[in-house]
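Me: I hope this is not a bother. Any chance you could explain this protein sequence and its structure tokens? It all follows right here:
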Amino acid sequence: MGFPKEGDSIQIHSYKHDGHIHRIWDETTVLKASGHCIIGGNDRTIVTESDGRTWITREPAICYFHTKYWFNVIGMIREDGIYYYCNISSPFAWDDEALKYIDYDLDVKIFPDMTYIILDEDEYEYHRKKMNYPNVIDLILKSNLEKLLRWIRQRKGPFSPDFIDEWYERYLTHVK
């Protein structure tokens, strides 16, 4: 398939540090694809967990992945506003099968008023010890968590006021 292009439908695969699959999103429409960034959109897509359980997302979402940053951002469009869910993760890779990244447990949930909470710090510590994350990875992840929090406070990148709305409009042109 080669590197995806606008309009392509791709899967997203999330792994754990030890190489085991964590989660698969079945279908995401590529809205932008450059050598360093993929922006996608999906709505009511099937998600398969590592144990085989499946569920369907409840609302439209715009996803932001980058090859430079150790996080990804999902903006979920709900009736009462945009909620964000950010994974502290490896930068994404593309391998003709799917967009892939390593999920490092730490997450940030952001509410429509841009307040946020950091989630799963205990899970991160557990997996850091269990899977022997190298110290350099621990430092990179914590540094990128701080960068992500700065982006949120500054309304930068995917957190800028019109980002999700503009990309959702483009998504709608692909699904009609």
In short: The first strand starts at residue 9 and ends at 15. The helical segments are 121-130, 135-154, 163-175. The mean pLDDT is 97.
